């Protein structure tokens, strides 16, 4: 007797299951990697390089987080530096956004969000955000990419602080960012 024939149809408990089903049914999977990226650093770039081959298209969404200081670079400056830094990845594009991440994801047809995790404290914060994004964003799932390697624990906040005091951050940021910061940008 075929056990599969006796199983009830798959039950959908909430929107998350149906959103995941849509991803598996689609021929093109699109992910949105949101952040302020002020500035982009090699830890961000590592997440992008890991996520890019997992999806048909990865959108790096540059936004403004009102919970963070206004930053050292404008949104368009950050987007330009990211575009230069990811030029070797043909399925990655960079977009600016304002407002809710879930609205940006919907506007760009994203099937899921991508978030980088550096530590347990990041995971705690990101799990809360992922839950709220799923609840308020039609069940959009979040894919976590752990930070691995020498740039796993890099922070834009510390890069801004070091660069503002004339320190050298070239080893933790893409070349275009290092040049901009060395030239007094930001």
Break the fold down into its secondary structure elements and pairings:
Blueprint: H1 3-6, H2 15-25, E1 30-35, H3 42-51, E2 57-62, H4 75-85, E3 92-96, H5 101-107, E4 112-117, H6 120-136, E5 142-146, H7 156-164, H8 175-182
Parallel strand pairs: 1-2, 1-4, 2-3, 4-5
How would you explain this protein's 3D organization?
- By secondary structure, the chain is of the alpha/beta class.
- It has a single domain, classed as Rossmann fold (3-Layer(aba) Sandwich), CATH 3.40.50.
- The chain contains eight helices and five strands.
- It has a five-stranded parallel beta sheet with strand order 3-2-1-4-5, sandwiched between helices.
- The termini are far apart.
- Mean pLDDT is 87; it is low at 6-13.
Note the total helix count: 8
Report mean pLDDT, rounded to a whole number.
87
Query: Roughly how many Å apart are the termini?
Result: 69 Å
Give the low-pLDDT segments.
6-13
Q: Major sheet: order of its strands?
A: 3-2-1-4-5
- Named at the architecture level, the CATH assignment is 3-Layer(aba) Sandwich
CATH topology: Rossmann fold
Order of helices and strands: HHEHEHEHEHEHH
